[in-house]
Amino acid sequence: MITEFTPWASLFGGVLIGLASVSLMVLRGRILGATGILAGFMTPTSSSDWAWRAAILAGMVSGPLAFYALTGGFPAIDVPVSNTMLIIGGVIVGLGVTFASGCTSGHGVCGMARLSPRSFAATLTFMASTGLTVFIIRHVIGG
Fold this sequence. Notes:
76% helix; mainly alpha
């Protein structure tokens, strides 16, 4: 399987994620964790809590639409696994974020930046599980 590394696009995306994380922490005192934002959007505690979450989710949807408007197409995304594998992976990720009380954006970006021991443990678990899964799928099962 061929993979492509895009250093400039990756750097730009990383800078945007960092700026968004810091901005949310400074302006709202909140962590930019995608699953936490979605969960809070679905069960808001107040209208102001719902509003900032809705704005972030709207940005997640409108970003690709803005890309399409500027370039005339979406980036090519090749997913080298079946839809069944995608669904199984989604369920496993859902279980993982539930047990870890957060996702890679909350723990890996924000929690580690705050030197949270819990986030370091969660991120190491995410990364080790990912590496093991890729090894098993590609080299043991042969998918």
